[in-house]
Amino acid sequence: MAHFLGLDASTQSLTAVLIDTDDGSIIHVCSVNFGKDLPSFGLPHGYDDSRGGGVVFSNPLMWLDALDLVLQRMVDDGVDLSSVRGVSGSGQQHGSVYLTSEFRQRVGDLQPSKSLSAQLADCLSRDEAPIWMDNSTSQECAEITATLGGSQEVCRRSGSVATERFTGPQIRKFAKESPAQYAATDRIHLVSSFFASILAGSDVAIDRGDGAGMNLMNLSRGEWDDELVATTADGLSGKLPDVKESSAVSGSISTYFVEKYGFSSDCATVLWSGDNPCSLVGMGAAQPGSLVISLGTSDTVFASMPEAKFDPQGFGHAFGNPMGGFMSLTCFKNGSLAREAVKDRFELDWSAFDAESLSETAMGNGGLMMLPFFEPEITPRMDTGGIVFNRDGDHSPAQWVRAVLEGQFLNMRLHSQWLGIAPQRIRLTGGASRNNGIAQVIANVFAVPVDRLVTTESAGLGAAIRAASACGESLDVLESVFCKVDEAFTVMPESGAAEVYDALLSSFSEFLVSKK
Ligand code: XUL
């Protein structure tokens, strides 16, 4: 039996995906929702944004409890974890965990009789883990940019201009505001490499896929960039783990997991990567040719790139592709929470939001447009949240639904142009990708067919596929078995869509510029 486990530590939940590469099946999926299942942390959506000023953080102890809980749930569900040959994972990108020198020893000596969080709580040099939603570091981005000699230079080195949510600017802010805590920090991990270290029972490397989301790694060399690291904060180079290729096997799983959950002591632990790089793999898009849209807490659009390309506007990013080469990514903060805000405003359920509302309105919404930025936006940069319509009036719930969706996907189409590719088809994933109405709006706005795979758990699946591939299984075979398009679910653009949305794209672009 060849079983591989992928764990996806996202903003709101931790999900486990277990695959069997002998018969090509996904044998178990199990999830812990931070808000619902771990209410004592008081983070209903998995993060705290109550402080204002763009500060958003989470709690690493909650993540550790979630890891214990998801594995316990698998055991309770009757899953025999001793059959797992390899495990890897996917983490929300950019978030960081700050640890004292105690961590390296403690992580190798965890006792199964106690929880992970109880044993590691006093190894945190900072209780909070800033996450990707934090945009409080404009000052630090400006300082890094000025020292390096401009945005283009930061972008040439790291694949992105200095970006508020990226780890380097976040570290700089922490070092400036809390010098004593920064000095007490021995190690700074990404969410991905933090979890990977826990599983391995040792301090493991950051992979080149997720490492590229830090403004600290030299993208072409795949190594820390000395100048970026030195500019970001004093003494930072000694606090960063190594950076390695995503397929590196860090060793076998820690005895904590062997004794507590029944893993085999031979189970290999493979470096984790970011959620978007893992999703690229899980969507069967690791090789160039497919454009992927992922609908989650953030919406993202990404594709594999053989050569690194840079977005002249600075919104898009070049990351490492975990299977080699590079990937592009543009991230939109107003994803599922914006869709939910409209659904909840009119007390709709998802079917009323998706199918019914869209059937009451026509493509183009009779010229009504919305800038769908309920929260401050990353792409394009909007420092304050607040939606805007291009026309006053008492708009119906159905008009609101179409306006939020058309606004989101016109904005996405506009900010994907830097890739210079005209996609022939789009692969759609993420929680909301099952909604046929939403998929139809995407097919119409981009005027191409939208394909969906059998599972929406592309990040967890990608992590499981990465584990299998690092343990010697062929990526081509894994992709052909696990990343099959479910043809019954393909959505075609409606007739006339190209004309409607080509015209709307320029009106939307002008409307956006007028409100910036
Ligand atoms: C990507 C980004 C988000 C997070 C959370 O740059 O910030 O997509 O990875 O999923």
Q: Which keywords apply here?
A:
six-stranded mixed beta sheet; 23 strands; Nucleotidyltransferase, domain 5; 2 domains; alpha/beta; binds D-xylulose; 18% strand; 516 residues
Provide the β-strand percentage band: 15-25%
Subunit organisation of the chains: single chain
As a percent range, the share of helical residues equals 25-40%
CATH topology of the largest domain: Nucleotidyltransferase, domain 5
* Spans of at least 5 consecutive residues with low confidence: none
**In this structure, how is the largest beta sheet organized?**
7 strands, mixed
Structural class: alpha/beta
Q: What is the residue-averaged pLDDT?
A: 96
* Helix count from the secondary structure assignment: 20
Estimated radius of gyration: 22 Å
Can you offer a commentary on this structure?
The chain has 516 residues and is of the alpha/beta class. The chain is 37% helix and 18% strand. It is built from 20 helices and 23 strands. Strands 1, 2, 3, 5, 13, 14 and 15 form a seven-stranded mixed sheet that branches. A six-stranded mixed sheet has the order 18-19-17-16-22-23, with helices on both faces. The longest helix is centred in the C-terminal third of the chain and has 19 residues, at 497-515. It is globular and about 65 Å long. It binds D-xylulose. D-xylulose (XUL) binds next to helix 13 and strand 19. D-xylulose is lined by residues 10-11, 92-94, 132, 165, 213, 274-276, 296, 298, 300, 329, 331.
